[in-house]
Structures are given as structure tokens and as C-alpha cells.
Amino acid sequence: MTDHPRHSIGTRAVHGSRAPRQGPLTTPVVQSSTFVFDSAAEMERYLHGDPDLAFEFYTRYGNPTLHALEEALAALEEAEAGLVFASGMAAVTTGILSLVDTGDEVLASASLYGGTTRFVRDFVPRWGMASRLVAPADLLRLREVAGPRSRLVVLESPTNPAVEVVDIAEVSRQAHALGMAVMVDNTFATPFLQRPLALGADLVMHSLTKALGGHSDIIGGALVGTRARIERARDLLKVLGGCLDPHSAFLVLRGLKTVHLRVARQCENAMALASHLRRHPGVARVLYPGLPDHPGHETARRQMSSFGGIVAFVLKGGLPAAERFYDGLRLMARAASLGGVETLVSLPVHTSHYGYTDEQLKAAGVDPGTVRVALGVEDAADLVEDADRALEGV
């Protein structure tokens, strides 16, 4: 837990779980694969978990730079412990496998990051477990949806890329009443806007590649939760091997210090763009929970401090119109990912949901004419101008 639980989120982003102490102000990069012991007796103490030993054994098992990042993430999410990985997918797959056993069933929202969906749908059944994709709205009636083998619910809110909002507290309440655990991908919201553990979730996952790293220059992932759940995931990490590089951990620690500033600006830009796009005649609908007519607006108001930096919109001309818009951009970058300082635009049917059938797209809430905009920190007026220019060709 944090040393300073009363500090606000911005202060925790800068300082993590600790106030400045004597020594280097920034966390050093411990770029070593292995660590030296003085004696067999010292090794024995390490193997028995002696808390007074302030060093590591092997970086796949742990590293001082990685632990500093894990503590900082736990402080942001107000969790007991954290664990970092080489990618968001390493985090989500290890997290899921740490929560279920052979014979169990995983229920996953049909509106999830495409890689997570593929893992649950195509890979989990290979290891003697069952899995089902469930419409986000149906997660609110788990008593009817869950089966006798259901042990885990996996969801994200807001969702990718349709920006739907799921009531995390209600899903968690129903899941726990049925003896199920809840894992939430909090990448879109970040701990600055939403803390799922406080809403009842059992394990939270982040892609560090996105807003927490913040500069589109690293790949990483993380889990946060109770110490017991994190240690179970750590045991799996040691075997599966998806450990984060110490230098990447250093870059994420640097990014965390400004996450509250960047995300606040991204939210402002998202609201400005969403409000402008809804008035354009070529736009069929704008998907942003900050708009009062968004179906998840009131839920977002309850469980988030603002509405996020992702705007999706559907063009009346379908995929051809979306492609013309995409090709007409001059400022906003045509690229996957999100959460960086530059605004990125993607077409979900060409990125996260490529290869989906029409039926699968419908289940995920994705129209072929959907454009996803991940806002950066540029001036909103310039982004709106670029969107208007690209819409002229639609």
C-alpha cells in the first residue's frame, strides 16, 4: 500500500508510494540480468523470503527498477501490489491464467481489445477451459448468463473501440455473489480517471504502452490487485517469461510523472472534437461518453472523474468514407495505439478488429465505417481543423 494514502492522484503520479529520500531523485536503471550473493547462507535467506534482503536474484524474477514501477502503479490504483510485463498482452494473458483452472469458464465482454478477444475465444479452450463472449449489456444480468463453471469475468470500460461504458461496480457485485472474480482492462481510462479496484474489481490490467508510458516509445503491461493475487500472477510470469526490460520500466516511471497532466488535456481535446463532429452532416453518430446523449453517460459520471481521451465516430458512407477521411488527414497521425502526446487515428476494421466477420463486428459494437481517434495534447482548434479538412473528401 502507499506510504501517503491521503495524497491526491497527481501527487501520487509524481512521487509514487514514497516521498523523496536521500540519493538519486529519479529511479536508477538496474541493467543487470543477475545478482551476486555473498554466501550460501544468504541465498538460503533469499529463498525463504527474508524481507530484510534488499536485493534480487534474477531479473525475470524481479529487479529494483521493475519493483519501483510496480510500487508506483500500485500507489496510483490504490492497490496492495503491482506486477509489470513485457507487453499488455503478456499482462492480460498471465492475469487470466492466474485466475482460472482447468474446467473453469471465462466470460468476456464481446467488446474488448482484439488481442484479448482472440486469446479468450481461440486459445483458452485449448487448455481445458471454456470461454464465452458476452455482450457488454448482458454482463449486467450475470445470474442469467453465468453457468456452473463460470469463474471469471473479463471486461474493459470504456470499451475498445466503440467507447461503451460498463457499470463495473454492478458487474462486480453480481459476479462476487456467484463466486466469480472480475478482471478489468483499465487502459482507456487510466487510474487518473477510474480505479476499478475501488469499484469492486479483483484484478486490474494496463497496457503501459499507452497513456501510462505516454510517449509511444515503449511496449509494456501491468497488473495490480491484492498481494495474494499478484503473487500468483508473479509465479506464472516466472515460468511464462514475459518480464519487462529495466530500461523500459525507467521510461514508464518517467511517463507516470505527467500522466495526470496529459490525460486531462486529452479529455479536453476529446470533448472538443466530439462536440464538433456531432454537428457534421457526414457523421452518422459520435461515440463519446462525455456527450449527454451517450447511453453510458450517467454511468461514466459515477465511476470516472472525466470521460477519457478516445472518440469514435461512424460515417454515413461506411468503410469507403472512413478510408477517405483517414487518407485526408494532414496533422493527426494514421497509426494504431493511443495515449501518447500525438493524436492517432485508426480504422478498427483494419487494426484491432481486422478479419472479424460481420456478425462478430456487430457483437463487438463496431460499424465498418467507424473511425477511432486517440487524442493527444495538441491544440484542439488544430485537431478540429484537420478533421474538417479530411471530412471535405467524404
Report on this model:
By secondary structure, the protein is an alpha/beta fold. The protein has helices at 9-15, 40-47, 64-77, 88-99, 114-123, 142-145, 168-177, 190-193, 227-240, 246-256, 259-277, 297-303, 318-327, 358-363, 380-391, and strands at 81-85, 105-109, 130-134, 150-156, 181-185, 203-207, 221-225, 283-287, 310-315, 333-334, 344-346, 370-374. The strands form two sheets. Strands 1-7-6-5-4-2-3 form a seven-stranded mixed sheet, sandwiched between helices. Helix 8 (190-193) links the parallel strand 5 and strand 6. Helix 3 runs parallel beside helix 10, helix 4 (88-99) crosses helix 9 and helix 11 (259-277) runs parallel beside helix 15 (380-391). It is globular. The termini are far apart. The mean pLDDT is 93.
Strand content: 5-15%
First-last Cα distance: 52 Å
* Helix percent band: 25-40%
What low-confidence regions span 5 or more consecutive residues with pLDDT below 50?
A: none
The biggest sheet, with number of strands, parallel, antiparallel or mixed sense and barrel status, is:
7 strands, mixed
Rg from alpha-carbon coordinates: 21 Å
Q: Please identify the structural class as seen in this structure.
A: alpha/beta
Which word captures the global form?
globular
